[in-house]
Amino acid sequence: MIAAPELPSEFAFTQDTDTRFSSDTDFSEDPDGRSTTSAKGKGGKKGKRGAGEKGKGGKGAGRINGHHQENGMENMMLFEVVKLGRSAMQSVVDDWIESYKHDRDVALLDLINFFIQCSGCKGVVSGEMFRNMQNSEIIRRMTEEFDEDSGDYPLTIAGPQWKKFKTSFCEFIAVLVRQCQYSIIYDEYMMDTVISLLTGLSDSQVRAFRHTSTLAAMKLMTALVNVALNLSINMDNTQRQYEAERNKIVAKRANDRLELLLQKRKELQENQDEIENMMNAIFKGVFVHRYRDSIAEIRAICIEEIGVWMKLYSDAFLNDSYLKYVGWTMHDKQGEVRLKCLTALQGLYYNRELNARLELFTSRFKDRIVSMTLDKEYDVAVQAIRLLTLVLNTDEVLTPEDCESVYHLVYSAHRPVAIAAGEFLFKKLFSQREPEEEGAPKRRGRQSPNVNLIKTTVFFFLESELHEHAAYLVDSLWECGAELLKDWECMISLLLDDPLPGEEALTDRQETALIEIMLCTVRQAAECHPPVGRGSGKRVMTAKEKKTQLDDRTRMTELFAVALPPLLAKYAVDAEKVTNLLQLPQFFDLEIYTTGRLEKHLESLLRQIREIVEKHTDTEVLESCSKTYYALCNEEFTIFNRVDIARSQLLDELVDKFNRLLEDFLQEGEDADEDDAYQVLSTLKRITAFHNAHDLSGWDLFTSNFKLLNTGIENGDMPEQIVIHSLQCTHYVILWNLAKSSEGSSKKDDMVTLRKQMRAFCMMCQRYLTNVNTAVKEQAFTILCDLLLIFSHQMVSGGREHLEPLVYSPEDSLQSELLSFILNHVFIDQDDDINSTDGQQDDEAVKIEALHKRRNLLAAYCKLIIYCVVEMKTGADIFKQYMRYYNDYGDIIKETMSKTRQIDKIQCAKTLILSLQQLFNEMLSELGHGFDRSSSAFCGIKELARRFSLTFGLDQVKTRDAIAMLHKDGIEFAFKEPSPQGEGGPPLHLAFLDILSEFSSKLMRQDKRTVHMYLERFMTFQMALQREDCWLPLISYRNSLQAGGDDDTMSVMSGYSSRGSSIRSKKAKPSSISSAGTSAVKRNLQTPVMMPSPHLTSTAMRDPKRGRDDSYMGVYALPHEQPQPHQHPQHHQQMPQHHQTPMEYKSRRSTGLMEEDEEPIVEDVMMSSEGRMDDLNEGMDFDTMDIDLVRYTCASVYFMICLDFQIMRRQTDGTLMYY
User: Fold this and answer.
1) Which of 20, 251, 526, 760 has the most crowded Cβ, counting Cβ within 10 A?
2) Phi, psi values for residue 70, rounded to 5°
3) CA dihedral (1205, 1211, 1212, 1213) positive or negative
4) What confidence tens digit (pLDDT) does each residue in 562-577 have?
5) 424 strand-pairing partners
6) Is 74 helix (H, G, I), strand (E, B) or coil?
7) What is the side-by-side order of every strand in the sheet holding 63-64?
8) What is the residue range of the signal peptide feature (predicted)?
9) Residue 1217: beta bridge partners?
10) DSSP state for residue 29 in the 8-state scheme
């Protein structure tokens, strides 16, 4: 029997081994590798048999794993049998048991190797090792033979072959214990050996060993729990039989039976004690350490299995000593482990009989469970809500605050979370439902048992203060409360019927909420998919779901076809209620009107809609009426003619009334009163709303509206709303005519008319861009952008070449006006928005609405850029606002940049650099040419350039041409304007090179040299020698082009890099380079950067460069007529500190510019090895050049080149003198 507190394992690690312990290793064994407490009944090293009994002869010699051998080779290993999973596990285990009965050492050796192989180890435990080695030594040997190159092992390997391995592995262990539960597991040998092996492996540093053995140990524990449970049941039965026999009278009592029952109970108690000792050994030796393992999968296995133990054998395990592990692990950092905790607890809370034992745990960890409903892992949040739903079975455990934290999740965008919260809400609020008497007729209407539940739903919806999210509430409750939500008859009764005696009537606000909920339930039943924002795409419906959908549509049509007209009549003056009610016919099965003989109700509905159109001027109500007519005017159904006649009569009256009122209104001119204007506006609103969904081209609305708009331009006193709706109505006229032309049903004259109307209307909108009223200008701008996009060159694509005459490209003046509008009305501060007046500046809703409107205006213009309707360069004025208005429009501007780059990378790059140039010019006009480069304005431009650079991504090949063009334009801009200080001063825009250097890291190495050569075309010789602060942008930019270049592009003349600028302390090797020819000099030499530290100077003879030659992209050299100066080392030591500024600045920038590259490559050719220098020299053709590297004892290293060398002497004041 295994003692409970101690672990009967010989798998200990001696002090002289290399094995490393995990952080949570149990050091219960002594250093000699033996358990501090011997296991019961163990003799020698392993069990009762001596080493001499472990031979391969005897009866068991011909069988391994229960399979016969041929010529000493086994047919199939136990691991292979389980891996294939083809054989019934029962027969596999029976074969092993048979082998164990013949020779238990051989069978146990096979079982040990089985666990080793299941861990993915290629090593094999031999009989010699099994007999003579300590268990810790065996594990160390297997660890050494483990293939550590691959992190995969059977439990983690992907593929169909290994998918079922875990299931087969666990099944094998369970069946093994079940088949051995009556004898073998009590022989004090097999289970002791297996438990010792698994305990030792579970403490290994090798993840595969630890993972596999923990899973095996936990499944072994689960199997033992089942055995213990059976023993407990048998003991109870035996005890009852014993008590029953003992309570008999003496004459009828069978003493032999009593002794037999007493003996049986004693045996069962001994077996129970032994099983408990095994379970204690596994729990303390494996679980206690591995439930906090560093690997989440291992922790999850432990928590999953302890949940099974507590559920199976609650008498032994369902107590605080075991529950605490689950409670602690609910704080695990991995969602997978937290999920296992919740699922384990669900199995416990599901059984109401166990709730009493969970009271202490619930009170201790309830707050944690409630907080997990907001877990970042949605799966965990769902299971936490479901667990709380089960906790509701316990009376008064959850406080109202706890419930409210779950209630609001019904509005979650994640549908599984919302549905789980809906189930919680339904159980909490709707569980108290009145039971219906059997055989009694079903109560309907206000008598329905759902009346109070529907009212409760309305009350909850109003109290949540998220009135616009009724669709989300309905979707959350749909799966658990569909029957309640589809009780439309009850809802109609609550709205139309008078309340019963003693019943409180619904308030106006409650009726509005009920109508909105009713509409959402109708939509959910008809469409059978969640609202926008929940779910991804439409799933395929099953046949049952389709039948339910058809039945629901039929039932709702039959109900609302009758009830809708009286509902509209009752709430005709309430715009919000009418708007929702008018949407119901969109979900009707219109065939029911004919098959159900409901034509009179259709007539009643059409009359009510007509009255609503005549009563209301609200845009939403009118659009709902228009959509209802559109839904009913379906040519597929027989009711079409009836509805079409009613619609035509209504429109005839509206158009005639509008023309009559408009004529009188225009004739009156300035004498028109407000009533006349209101009549024109209300009629125009109705016509515009209907024109959105219906083709009214037969009424010639363009002429009357254009006349109205033209009058408004001439007089300038047209009411704002009349102009806005007139623009919108004319826009619909253009679009409906275009739709006819696209279908090919229009004549040539109609095309010509449409072309004239479209161009005239665009000119009219352009004129209204200068209107004094902001709302009018915004409407004109939006319509103009839509028309330019629709009638752009892309309208002829897709086989619509016949629309070519309609293509319209905006003139430059129109493009300029559109851009000016954006700059003046979009890129403004929130407080400057003239729309947020009337004391509503502090109203957050008004500010959000204003921002939304400005975003729509910007998006409309950006679409013109993306589709090449306006020139891409106009986007520069948009892009330059990226940083300043990042919070408001950053996403729109970034997407525009991305789309333009996909269209034309080079033009996009030119636009980006143009935006930076515009900002630079604006800064110059504000600060003057003597600005400070540390100013916030200049730093802001540099930061914007850095952001632009990041948008190019990491693929330099794709953006190569664009980046090169960007540098070209930037260089040209920097040298475009002469110096305001006269000759010898820096160019006016030279500081722009500092901004341009932000893009140097995006250049490919070979392109940096080309750009550097292009830069030198704009430089004079004196520029290369300047070192004042005003020339730092040029120095910084040149250094950014040299850093990271290939070695063969680094010139010997410049020889200066960020690494070369530092003082060298290592001794340089002298080397010599000689080559012939001068053809490669112009290709490889670069302009020397005049820094205070010494550098290598090329003495190759070249003609002096006197000015810029556009035909030559070379460098400027020192005149060869100069005499040879001499430089003294001590001069360098006396230099003032400020002379180091250029070097420090350059070193700092070279690091920052490379932040997007994988690694800055800065090579100093003078520190290269001789072989590296030989490779470099292969690309250079010098006549004869010897380079001697001499190290001085001062703080710097000086290089002197001996040929026709020229040496410069640096004075202590930092200037250069030539001799």
Assistant:
1) 526
2) -125, 125
3) negative
4) 999 999 999 999 999 9
5) none
6) strand
7) 63-64, 67-70, 73-74
8) none
9) 1209
10) B
Residue type at 632? L
Report the distance separating Cα 415 and Cα 524, nearest Å.
14
Q: Which of 713, 719, 639, 710 is nearest to 685 (CA)?
A: 719
Reference 169, options 122, 217, 203, 204; nearest CA is: 217
CA pair distance 705, 659, nearest whole angstrom: 10
The set of residues, in sequence order, having a beta carbon less than 8 Å from that of 745 and lying 6+ positions away, is none
User: Residue 70: in which H helix or E strand, if any?
Assistant: strand 67-70
Dihedral sign (CA 530, 534, 537, 541): negative
If DSSP codes are grouped into helix, strand and coil, which group holds residue 28? coil
Query: 263 has which bridge partners?
Result: none
| Structure confidence by residue, pLDDT tens digits, 883-898 | 999 999 999 999 999 9
Element (H, E) at 1190: strand 1186-1190
- Whether the CB-CB separation of 297 and 335 falls below 8 Å is answered with no
At 1064, the amino acid letter reads: R
Spell out a b/e string for 886-914, using b for 16 or more CB atoms within 10 Å of the CB, else e: eebbeebbeebbeebbeeebebbbbbbbb
Beta strands in 791-888 (DSSP E): none
Are 989 and 974 a contacting pair, CB within 8 Å?
yes
Residue 257 has pLDDT above 50, yes or no: yes
Q: Considering only CA atoms, which of 434, 343, 432, 359 is closest in space to residue 397? A: 359
d(CA 61, CA 81): 20
Give the residue from 454, 490, 486, 608 showing the smallest Cα distance to 554: 486
**Residue (of 217, 190, 186) closest to 202 by Cα position:** 217
Q: Output the pLDDT for position 177.
A: 93
Does residue 1123 or residue 640 have the better pLDDT?
640
Locate 1001 and state its tokens.
């890291």
Tell me the pLDDT tens digit for each residue of 72-111.
333 457 788 787 766 678 888 998 999 899 888 888 998 9
Give the Cα separation of 141 and 746 in Å (integer).
89
Backbone φ and ψ of 201, nearest 5°: -65, -35
Mean pLDDT in residue range 660-686: 87
Question: Distance between CA 973 and CA 917 in Å, rounded?
Answer: 8
Among the listed residues 1120, 1069, 1061, the one whose alpha carbon sits nearest the alpha carbon of residue 1095: 1061
Measured between alpha carbons, how far apart are the two ends of the chain, in Å? 103
Query: Which amino acid belongs to residue 780?
Result: A
862, 892 in Cβ contact below 8 A? Answer: yes
**Stronger pLDDT, 1105 or 125, i.e. the higher one:** 125
